[in-house]
Amino acid sequence: MHVAVSRRGATAAVTGLSCLLFPLIGAPGSSAAPRSGAAGSMAVAPYEYLGWGSPQKPTDVMAATGVKWFTLAFVLSDGGCNPKWDGTRALTGGSDQAAVNSIRGAGGDVVVSVGGWSGNKLGEKCSSASALAGAYQKVIGAYHLKALDIDIENTEFSNATVRKRVVDALKIVKTDNPGLVTYVTMGTTPNGPDANGKDLIKKGAAAGFANDGWVIMPFDFNGHSGSMGSATVSALEGLKAAVKGAYGYPDDTAYRHIGVSSMNGKTDEADETVTTGDFQTILNYARQHHMARYAFWAVNRDRQCGSGGSGDSCSGVAQAPYAFTKIVVQYM
């Protein structure tokens, strides 16, 4: 994510930032991926960033929208192969754990997201797949997670050695934590993953990594045609083709192993505004193909800007509070 509006990963004034689920899923490695179908499904877990953007109380969001799951961001490296929130806050005992406890106390749960655009990345700071798996395991163990999101961006994404390290580490934690759901989230072009994204998926398939959801962020395209909804559908079709080709899945299975994490309202690019109509287009597509995940960046932004409002804390478009979350939650 970038400064100002924040593509999942970076932010203006904070160093190293950007952007659990009771599943209806098959066993790890089966053809059935997490999908919608029951209230509280992990398929719907919008991002909330608790470190900036005037975050709302998660329980207030739950009461207003019916959403049950959140993807909390971001866990980063503390400078070594050790995970901390934003690279600085301990995993347990602080405000982040208090937020998790409040969500669970209200009947929900969380996905924890590791990575983002800015800051020190565990995939780069951990020198081996086994060491990286150990860092991921600390996060999983701290919260007894049922799902983990790796938001792989920037230099972590562009380095082939690190891409392989990430998928190899995820394969280890999938083996060590039966039933753990994994998502790998990355940027995209309007036609689907770029060369790095396709290579990441191929590396995952070659390693035998049974990922539950390969997820794209369909914004910050650096040029697109048509609506953002139609560009998202095009990108998802490209993602499906990449996953199908790498894993040898039939079409239906490939669709069930892909997902989307959009951005609500204005993005970092002047020619991009993602409307509630675009979210409805994505919802219709997700329902048609039973996608593994429908999330967005971010709950922090799901409100109209007031005087002096920042793109980190509001959408930049005219909207009712939580208008975007209320569409996404329909996929539960």
- Care to count the β-strands? 11
Gap between N and C termini, in Å? Answer: 26 Å
Overall shape: it is: globular
Oligomer: single chain
Sheet with the most strands, sense and barrel status: 9 strands, mixed
Residue share in β-strands: 15-25%
By secondary-structure content and strand pairing, the structural class works out as: alpha/beta
Elements, N to C (H/E):
EHEEHEHHEHHEHEHHEEEHEH
Contiguous runs where pLDDT drops below 50 for at least 5 residues: 1-40
Number of helices: 11
Give the rounded overall mean pLDDT. Answer: 89
Task: Determine the fraction of residues in helical runs and give it as a percent range.
Answer: 25-40%
Radius of gyration: 18 Å
Task: Describe what you observe in this structure.
The chain has 332 residues and is an alpha/beta fold. It has eleven helices and eleven strands. Strands 1, 2, 3, 4, 5, 6, 7, 8 and 11 form a nine-stranded mixed beta sheet that branches. Strands 9-10 form a two-stranded antiparallel ribbon. The relative contact order is 0.17. The model is unreliable at 1-40 (pLDDT under 50).
Key descriptive features of the protein:
11 helices, 332 residues, two-stranded antiparallel sheet, disordered N terminus, 9-stranded mixed beta sheet
Which helices and strands occur, and which strands form pairs?
Layout: E1 47-49, H1 58-65, E2 69-77, E3 83-85, H2 95-105, E4 109-116, H3 122-125, H4 129-143, E5 147-152, H5 154-158, H6 160-176, E6 181-187, H7 195-207, E7 213-217, H8 228-247, H9 251-255, E8 258-263, E9 265-266, E10 273-274, H10 276-289, E11 293-297, H11 323-328
Parallel strand pairs: 1-2, 2-4, 4-5, 5-6, 6-7, 7-8, 8-11
Antiparallel strand pairs: 2-3, 9-10
Helix pairs in contact: 4-6, 6-7, 7-8, 8-10
